[in-house]
Amino acid sequence: MFKKLVFLSLFLCHSAFAELPSIIDPVIPATPPGAQVAAGYLSLTNNSDSTLTIDGASSAVAKKVELHLSKVENDVAKMIKQDSVMVKAGETFEFKHGSYHLMLMGLENALKPGDVVDIILETSNGDILIEMPVKKMGMSKMKKKMDHKMDNNN
Amino acid sequence: MKAENTENLQPKSRWLPALVIATVALVGGIGANIWLNTGASTESVDVYSDAELKQIQEQLVATTILPDNFKSVPAFELIGANNTAVTDALFADKWSMVFFGFTHCPDVCPTTLYVMNSVIDELREQSLSEPQVVFITVDPVRDTIDKVTDYVNYFSEEFVGLSGTLNNITQLTSKLGVVASFTASETDPNNYTVDHTASMLLIDPQKNLRAKFGAPHEVDSIVKDFKTIIASFQ
Ligand SMILES: [Cu+2]
Fold it and tell me: How many pairs of residues across A and B have Cβ atoms under 8 Å apart?
């Protein structure tokens, strides 16, 4: 019985826990009233020893979730849909402001601070369910000084 | 109000390609160069020498001073909150920071408006004069004035949000050298995104385009540069 348990935990360690990517600081900034779109941000660390690809995403709160890259070229801001993003073994990939983001399109309702949005990331290692808290803008890491001010106001 | 209040985007895919062509023709497709290549305004008087402008430029962190007599706000008629007509008189006798964007923009546009609100807070805290902040949609077909008003008010009730007919907005953006180019979604022909000028424009009380704040927009550098600029252009 004891042996079996050890075996089981080793098995879990190797084939599941050690390979699951870590999700760091998932957040969706709250949306203005009537907004049809939202952006999701997070960091994902690939703990496995092979490249992980993120091929898509979905959520019940949006008609569609796409992987997007915001970029500014010649002073023109663009959003470009990405078919997939790659995360090499051991590396961390950031979805962040002004860069890659999860683009939630066709929102049913505004996303308010305190809401939690379930997003499924489709990866080469299977689907990952991520709970993304909705926070007031600026409560993430956009501007530390403002965070401080907002804390004082609350 | 010409923009239809409908979520059915089907009719738009018909004008979309024509619009892309029109926009590309207007701006020559090159964001950076149009700022310098299009004709100078004839309405204002040349007051600052190149040397003076250069000296101001050297003090700035993240802002580009534009040549004197570069461009000024043309006569326009757009629509403001509660469907009221708004003309270029909006820009008379005060400094304004103007951003062109659209509400189907979850990353760059909200970040900019959020930063602008922080800029105003910071200027107020330092008891300095504040510019008015104006957000003009480049996507008036989806962004009815009520949507734009709700959107900007979420960031600050003092911000001015404008919509209008596509024709009037395109005339204004092309005269100011602002890019707005429509790209249909690969996966959904009824959907599209709008590439648009990332800089924020600073307009002086004589309605001249004085400077542009480049992206990414940061509170501290905008505050610092705005202070330098208003002190330099009396
Ligand atoms: Cu996007």
Answer: 101
